[in-house]
Amino acid sequence: MTIDELLTTTRSVRKRLDLTRPVPLELVRECLEISLQAPTGGNRQGWHWIVVTDPDLRKAIGDYYARSWNTYYGSGSSAASLYAADPERVKIQERVSSSAAYLGEHMGDVPVLVIGCISTPGGLPEGNQAGLWGSLLPAAWSYMLAARARGLGTAWTTLHLAYESEISELLGIPGNVRQGVLLPTAYYTGDTFRPAPRQPLDEVLHLDRW
Fold it and tell me: Where is the Nitroreductase domain (predicted)?
C-alpha cells in the first residue's frame, strides 16, 4: 500500500482481532524495531516495551481492563454518550462504543499485549507533560503503522492505567517506569479498512491566530 493509504487506514481494531491465530514474536519484534526510529526528546530513548504473551498474565491484565471499562462505561463518558444532538455522528459513536465494549470483554484473549512505557527517573513532571509523553507516543503510533503493514491489527487504549500500579506489580515494572499505552495485537479478519469520517479541516485549522 502507499504511505498515504497506510496513514489513513490504520484504525483501532477491536472486534476484528483474530483471537485464535498465534502471532509470531519475530513479527512483533520487527514492528518494535521500526517504532524505535521514532523521534524522542533529547534523543533520550527512555522508552520500554513490555510484550505479554503468557496466557495467565494476559488474563490478569484483561480482568483489570474489563473492570476499568465497566467503570468508564458506567460513568456516562464513553463514546456512545457523545454528540447526542448529531444523529449521523451518534451512529458512529455507538459503533465505537460497541467495539470498545467487545475489547473490554476480550482483552485477555488477545494473543499479544504490548505496553509502551517510559522512564521517569525524577518522577512525573509538574504541569504540562507533553515533553515526556511526546517521547513515547510517536513510537507507539509507529508500532501500529508497522503492524498494519504486516497484516496485524492494533488498538490504542489507556483504560488499563486505572490499574497501573497493579499491572506494574504483576509484570515487575520498576517504580520509575510509567506505562503510557496498551496495544493489543493480533491478526485481523477481513481487509476493508478505509479512512474514517473526520471534521472538515477548515473547522479545526487556524492560520496565524485562533
Answer: 9-176
